[in-house]
Amino acid sequence: MLYVVDLHKSYEGAELLNGVSISVRESEIICLLGASGSGKSTLLRIIAGLEMPDSGQVLWDGKDLGSTPTHLRNFGLMFQDYALFPFLNVAENVAFGLKMQNLPKTEINLQVDAILKQVNLQGYETRKVTELSGGEQQRVALGRVLAPRPRLLMFDEPLGALDRSLREDLLAELRRVLRKSRVPVIYVTHDQEEAFALADRILLLHDGVICREGSPEELWRDPGSGWAARFLGMGNILSGQTLDEGRVKTSSGTFRTGDCQHSHKAGERVDVLIRPEVESGPLDGENHLEGLVKDVNFSKNGYRVTLQSDLYFILPEAPRVGERLSINLPEWSVQCLG
User: Fold this and answer.
1) How many C-beta atoms lie closer than 10 Å to residue 165's C-beta?
2) Distance separating the N- and C-terminal Cα atoms of the chain
3) Are residue 275 and residue 315 in the same domain, yes or no?
4) Quick one: pLDDT at residue 303?
5) CATH number (domain holding residue 195)
6) How many Cβ atoms are within 10 Å of 133's Cβ, its own excluded?
7) What is the pTM of this model?
8) Mean pLDDT across the chain
9) Same domain for 302 and 259
10) Rounded to an integer, what distance in angstroms lies between the CA atom of residue 196 and that of residue 31?
11) Is 232 found in the same domain as 123?
């Protein structure tokens, strides 16, 4: 399968990729997740052969692709703007890559029919792509990239131009299509919800390196760093100092932490994650804090309650602004980060 080994890439003296290594297994969907400008798209373009690295290798089944031009790599690449041909209809857009392979017309027609069925566009063959909705154009672009049967699929923010409701609908459909194709996938996004909904494995790209990788569940249980937890929107991030017996001292109090996957010495400075899904009510046990309510906003999971300390929590009932609130923190909600 695909192996990227120790890639480096600089622009105007600034190192954008600093020794990046990744692998993609058979039928696996991986998501490259990072902030805008983190180098995600550059990494994708290097894998596709559209850019050359300063150093490092891109290997397929052990073969170095450094001298292999883009059109011979047999990788499919889909961009955010879809890059559809406006002068071709739906069937002609999907057939474009097949015609480049000089396949017989009858075989092209059969494959186009199969692909249009796969992406739920039967009956759209003669429609102009300029007459389609954003979601329908996305399906055409997906069909076009699937039609030549690439050995690797790459997506660069393909849903970025769509509104959130349509994006959510298409995510489930996209995963179904990609699962059925069984082609390995690299999916680039800056949207955390997108990555968690789609990926088998997520790779966080930050400051030119892969700073954390794992399944969505593994990342949610242990983000690994304050930056990762903050970027993933996992809760409150505080600076703290470890004490003995699994306790950590922060500006908001001293708390007992849950099971920690890292080894910390007493007195060590650490980032502390306090997850927001907790309880309010009479103080109970060692882990608790109090504060005045600064703001209350409704969310689909409950009420987001922000205290004067700027810590926030998700509660089932809405307190009043200005009310003094007591928050109980179960041990699992307080976590030292490596």
Assistant:
1) 8
2) 31
3) yes
4) 93
5) 3.40.50.300
6) 10
7) 0.88
8) 89
9) yes
10) 9
11) no
Q: How many domains does the chain have?
A: 2
**Residue 74 and residue 172: Cα distance in Å, rounded?**
26
Work out the average pLDDT over 222-239.
Answer: 93
Residue type (1 letter), 103:
L
The DSSP code sequence of 11-41 is: ETTEEEEEEEEEEE-TT-EEEEE--TTSSHH
Could you tell me the two tokens for 165?
């409701």
Residue type for 203, please? L
Model pLDDT for residues 269-307, shown as the tens digit of each residue: 999 999 998 876 665 567 888 899 999 999 888 999 999
Query: Strand, helix or coil at 108?
Result: helix
**235: pLDDT strictly greater than 60:** yes
Whether 28 and 148 share a structural domain? yes
pLDDT at position 243: 87
